[in-house]
Amino acid sequence: MGSMFRSEEVALVQLLLPTAAAYTCVSQLGELGLVEFRDLNASVSAFQRRFVVDVRRCEELEKTFTFLKEEVQRAGLTLPPPEGALPAPPPRELLRIQEETDRLAQELRDVRGNQQALRAQLHQLQLHSAVLGQSHGPPMAAAHTEGPSSERTPLLPAARGPHADLKVNFVAGAVEPYKAAALERLLWRACRGFLIASFRETEGQLEDPVTGEPATWMTFVISYWGEQIGQKIRKITDCFHCHVFPYLEQEEARRGILQQLQQQSQELQEVLGETERFLGQVLGRVQQLLPPGQVQIRKMKAVYLALNQCSVSSTHKCLIAEVWCATRDLPTLQQALQDGSSEEGVSAVAHRIPCRDMPPTLVRTNRFTAGFQGIVDAYGVGRYREVNPAPYTIITFPFLFAVMFGDVGHGLLMFLFALAMVLTERRPSVKAAQNEIWQTFFGGRYLLLLMGLFSIYTGFIYNECFSRAATIFPSGWSVAAMANQSGWSDKYLSQHPVLTLNPNITGVFLGPYPFGIDPIWSLATNHLSFLNSFKMKMSVILGVIHMAFGVFLSVFNHMHFGQAHRLLLETLPELIFLLGLFGYLVFLIVYKWLRESAASASTAPSILIHFINMFLFAQSPTNQPLFHGQEVVQYVLVVLALATVPILLLGTPLYLLRQHHRRNTQRRPAGGEDKDSDKLLASSDASTSVNSWNADEEKAGIPGDEEEAEFVPSEVFMHQAIHTIEFCLGCISNTASYLRLWALSLAHAQLSEVLWAMVMRIGLGMGREMGVAAVVLVPVFAAFAVLTVAILLVMEGLSAFLHALRLHWVEFQNKFYSGTGYKLSPFTFTVDNE
Questions:
Q1: What would the DSSP string read from start to end of 362-402?
Q2: Where do the segments described as Disordered lie (predicted)?
């Protein structure tokens, strides 16, 4: 947790890897996941790097693995997870893996091809048998009848005359059912009816040789005479992709052929069964080879890609790599290099080198803190060694959410939902769920847990549980004392449905409620007015404290980066401006709460009028001051706040400009040789201070080495002017922005009240009138539960979450957090193992 408050120290390390041990060393680093490689060959094309051939071989193997995986899934099998931690294979193993994989893939292609051919052949035999087995019957010559009508003219003439030598021919086959009607229609139109066609559906379904799904076919037998008609019929059947089979005229010959087809089908089925059994054996070998092979080849490819980012020494005996590594992990890095290079009899060297570039940001997280760190990183990754808002967000984010979502019942439901995810987080089925919404909830389970817990706490403060108040402690108000001392008669009670409790009467107000809001306020007609005043002032107090804490955190940034001038020229004026105006408003709210009592409530001064008069330098005769000398204090605070504006605007730019002129004055007397010696001294000094980059220069957008040459006063003044205007106006707008706590809290309470009044109250009343409360309340409670989850938990919860997110990003983090860094992306095999 030490690195949660500030990102870890990261150093730039140069690695000298002997060529013989480079692969092993990088593989060891990938197993540890400690370093991020810098690309030293950025100007070199990816196709011209040293290990591009090895990368291509790995990619070819991945393509083969993809083919094997698809074949396994096609067979309805699953791949087992790889057993244990598999290291990256040695380079000499790549050829063996490639040969074994290619041989297995080719064998699988051959077996799959034979299976497809046998299935297609079996399908043709089954179709031929279905055509011969259907009772189409060979059409005989139609009898000749007299009559002039062409419809009565026989298709075939009498056995005597000039056409006595013509013979009836047949075309038989099978076609898909959806093509049968179009085929029959086209045949009739093309041949002008000079044919007899019979279409019948197969009795059973036949397995498709490609998809393996059962399908129904239409068999047909067409009889015709004449060669031209036959050519037309064959062309049409070819266009419809029909399966055409020979069809003999004699029935006995057809039966003989049908028996032969059935015998051939049985033999083919036996051969196909043997082929499928052999295919199962091949797929079993694929299941054993594929899981470990995929992991190993991915690791090997990752190693070669990392090696491609290294440069080659002038002697070609070692590779030079530059990596970012956390300082605390340097001993582990050195030990990993020694382990990786010891087998080759050579030693890899690692040493820190200076760098003027801003290092990457490394913040280690665990299952609990990952969700909160994700909220911060969604705004922007912090600069190197900048204060990390995540530890404070763990408390402030659920609390501000709960201020807007405060309800014991709703918070308890959210807490139980998150607790169920936390308790089942180690189950593989829960982790492997592919639903995107579920993955979002599961990733933020600890955030939801704290949000629900804090909502229960604020719900007890608001004394609301599904919009109903609970009497945990005795009320601080006594109706009996008011009735006894006011002399309420039956006539007075009948004429006044609303009664007023006077706290100035002895015994009516016994004291404040021990914890939270007194439950008697839920019965009062001015309940909403009371909560309006309470929650609005509470929102202002929380907002000012939250913003002041953000300004205070900037102190740690300035101290760490050696910017002492910013403490006096930025942080102190910002605190004076914020606390002198809005901190004073918080003081007035708390002071009035402590000073005024029920007896003086009617004559209590208005804080709002006092705050307006403070900026107008005016007085209100009807609004008495809260304390002696209040007007003088207000005038002094306004003057101080206004006096800090020019300090904020000009302080830092003038200081940096003065420092720049001082450096130039010190360097002017020196000649060219002195300048060269200064550069050497500067480089030697830089070598003693690793990663010696200047945060002031980074913030102004100027590289460190060229700060003196490229210092532009106008840019610095413009940057500071933007910062000053943003802060001064932001104090006003941000304070008003925290009023969303008041607005959403009231909206949530009123929605809960409306849902209770429109559903549960009506249901309870219906049950009492009808005398069947148990039966009526079942659908009523079901509707109440569904609406509560859908509207109050999901929709209202999402709304409160987004508003709490905005308060942290805009109102809190912009006081001290720039978010202009980039994450450390270590070279690791963890994803491959998963």
A1: -----TTTHHHHHHHHHH-PPPTTPBPSHHHHHHHHHHHHH
A2: 134-153, 665-704
Contacts of 798 (CB under 8 A, 6+ apart): none
Distance separating alpha carbons of residues 372 and 392, to the nearest angstrom: 9
Contacts of 380 (CB under 8 A, 6+ apart): 817, 818, 819, 820, 821
Distance, CA of 571 to CA of 495 (rounded, Å): 63
Q: Is the predicted pLDDT of residue 63 greater than 90, yes or no? A: yes
Give the DSSP per-residue string, 33-63. T-EEE--TTTTS-GGGSTTHHHHHHHHHHHH
HEC per residue, 463-477: CCECCECCCCCCCCE
Distance CA 147, CA 702 (A): 108
Higher pLDDT: 775 or 286? It is 286
**Lowest-confidence region among 58-62, 161-165, 434-438, 825-829:** 161-165
**Dist CA 203 CA 275 (whole Å):** 28
- What one-character DSSP code corresponds to residue 142? P
Cα–Cα distances in angstroms (integers) from residue 395 to residues 139, 229, 404, 449, in the given order:
91, 89, 15, 12
Q: Tokens standing for 149?
A: 């009508």
Structure tokens at 321: 């790599």
Q: Are 283 and 75 in contact (CB under 8 A)?
A: yes
C-beta of residue 400 within 8 angstroms of C-beta of residue 542: yes
Q: What are the angstrom distances between the C-alpha of 575 and each of 364, 548, 770, 779? A: 32, 7, 65, 57
Residue 558 tokens, joined: 């300035």
Can you tell me the mean pLDDT for 8-36?
91
Distance (Å, whole) CA 648 – CA 347: 56
Residue whose entry in the numeric block shows the structure tokens 């009023």: 739
Between 596 and 271, the higher pLDDT residue: 271
Q: Tokens at residue 27, please?
A: 């593989």
DSSP-assigned states of every residue in 775-824: HHHHHHHHHHHHHIIIIIIIIHHHHHHHHHHHIIIIIIGGGT------B-
Under the banding of pLDDT at 50, 70 and 90, the label for residue 699 is very low
Q: What is the pLDDT of residue 698?
A: 40
Q: At 771, is the pLDDT very low, low, confident or very high (cuts 50, 70, 90)?
A: low
> What percent of the chain has pLDDT above 70?
89
Q: Give the span between the Cα atoms of 232 and 18, in whole angstroms.
A: 78
Task: State how far the Cα of 173 lies from the Cα of 131, in Å rounded to an integer.
Answer: 6
Q: Cα(794)–Cα(476) distance, rounded to whole angstroms?
A: 36
Going from the C-alpha of 660 to that of each of 25, 650, 673, 681, 718, the distances in angstroms are: 46, 15, 22, 19, 17
The Cα-based distances of 432 to 46, 61, 438, 442, 828 in angstroms read 35, 27, 11, 11, 21
The pLDDT tens digits for 146-169 are 334 444 455 545 545 555 556 778
C-beta of residue 104 within 8 angstroms of C-beta of residue 286: yes
Distance of CA 29 to the CA centre of its chain: 28
What is the average pLDDT across 730-739?
93
Question: In what helix (H) or strand (E) does residue 218 lie, and over which residues does it extend?
Answer: strand 218-224
What is the sign of the dihedral through the CA atoms of 622, 625, 631 and 636? negative
Residues 6+ apart with CB under 8 A from 304: 51, 54, 55, 58
Mean pLDDT for the stretch of residues 164-190: 84
- Provide the H-helix boundaries in 173-310: 177-190, 227-239, 251-307
pTM over 0.90: no
**DSSP states of 346-364 as a string?**
---EEEE----SPPPB---
Q: Which helix (H) or strand (E) holds 311?
A: strand 311-312
Closest CA to 101 of 282, 264, 268, 279: 282
Counted residue by residue, the chain has a size of 834
